[in-house]
Amino acid sequence: MSGDGELAYEALIQFLYRAPVALIQLQKDGAIEILNPMASRLLMPLAPDGDMENFFHVLRRHAPDLPRLCADFSAPQGVICEGRRIGVETTHGHADGPAVLSLGLLKLDDNRLMAVLLDATHEVVREQRMLANAAQVDALTQLPNRAGTLALLRKMGARARAASGDHCALLLVNLDRFKRVNDTLGNAVGNQVIALVAERLRTTVRSGGRAAGGGLAVETPTHVGGDEFAVLLDGLPERAIVERIAGRLLERLGKPYRVGEQELALTFSLGMVVLGAGAQDADDLLRDAAIAMTVAKSQGGNRMVGFQQEMRDQALLRSGLEADLRTAIERAELFNVYQPVVGLMAHGRMDPGAGVEALVRWRHPVRGLVGPVEFIGVAESTGMIHAIGEQVLATACRDFVAWQRQLGAGAPRLLAVNLSRAQLTKTDLCDKVAAILAASGMPAAQLQLEITESLAAQGADIQQQLLGLKQLGVKLALDDFGTGYSSLSSLHLLPVDTVKIDRSFVSLAASSAHHKVLIEATVLVARSLGMTTVAEGIETVEQAEVAHAQGCDKGQGYLYSRPLESAALLQWLATQQAPAAG
Ligand code: C2E
Ligand code: MG
Ligand code: MG
User: Using CA of residue 235, residue 239, residue 240, residue 246, what is the dihedral sign?
Assistant: First the structure.
């Protein structure tokens, strides 16, 4: 070892020796190999007979399950437990010895373990003092529950107002897709996961750092309920620290969890609120943090978002829409419009009867006409999308069959209807579609269901659902292609008949060579797979020319027509020249 290396090594040994935590190296049967002075100090009072040979033996009265826990841990190495609270009070006569220890166990290899012990007495006393009331503690995690969180927030808010220039904040953390854990692994595993997250949270938060004004900076974890946790930050010297702490929290919480044989990778969404100078209601704080957390989730999760006032306004707007949407169906405020999808032909000509796409609209009694972009999200998150989707499909099929009766060969030949994410995950979707086809007399081969690209790229269950729909004889289209995750190279994995190239590409195609090439490549790949292509959002003659030149089969856009109600659509069709034969 070089001189520098030796020095560093010596410094490390010195550090381990003096560290204010107990470090113990064990054999797998608990036999103690090495321990530092802090370890002797914490363990000695627990071994009244003075026998410190075996760690499990010393703790046998307080944590009898440790040998089992270690034996059951099958991975070659890793964290067996962390932040495990062990009560050691009253079993011996040392009045000022620790009452509660916090234990971490690490498997180093097949034969050796490392134990880390901390005196957690003060931490526990502090928690207990804060939570004099047992009704404020959650049984599963031993953390303050929702009522406890609110009580702590009230206290912090009151203090913050009186405050001395330091900062307080609330972080709300919610597990992403926790329902999936429960659904696939069972509620018992779900509960274990919650307990593990609580443990991780406890070992991640820090307390006791010096804060502004000489007070203590304290981070207090709580379990608000379900898969939702909070961390209260009190006494921070600067506001900017909040984000750093939140980042550290997300990083630590995102490390894998071990449940029995399984290793679970979980992600979290975090909302943060920094307490202002004015009076703040505890409920309001929790709600604001939840709003920011929901925004983090809606952006895909695994991220943190700071609360902003506009978010509350949007949430209010949304909840207003939500309430109204519930009655919109009964009051028949929702209706379909249809946008022509035309066949692209040489010399700027087009075939007007190629098809139509059904698009839902909401005639709101106060707001006026509301577009789907504004309410489909609300409908999805509240489950109303199922009723709405069924109504859109049933109405569209009825209208389509009526046009065929009325116009015969002059009627549109294909009906496109959009499906949302939530609809695709519902198991009875195929049955519902089949029932609607049967009831309306709609020919399955003339119905095209559209799914967005980001959806199609997901999971085996979605694939299964798509195959089920194909078996009904309907066609499938990949909507908004180019905006999502799937690339040209995975197009062959999807059972779709048509690719709809997103408007963002089409609108730039005339001016950007890059976008033109992307369209061309998409068309080539789609063709080689036997799929047709539609250029979405054609607004100018130039764009139509490019789309046709790049080989797109069909086009849709304001150049041909805006979405129209059924009667107006028939008028539009009547005024179009039928394409000249040949
Ligand atoms: P989409 O399926 O990609 O529908 C095309 C959207 O582009 C429509 O917007 C249409 O009005 C618009 N559009 C068509 N041509 C042009 C153009 O030349 N320029 C511009 N700027 N826009 C054009 P809309 O009706 O607002 O619908 C937006 C999205 O909402 C749809 O995108 C679809 O994903 C969803 N959506 C609409 N109706 C339904 C429905 O009944 N169910 C479900 N699940 N989603 C729907
Ligand atoms: Mg569509
Ligand atoms: Mg689209």
Answer: positive
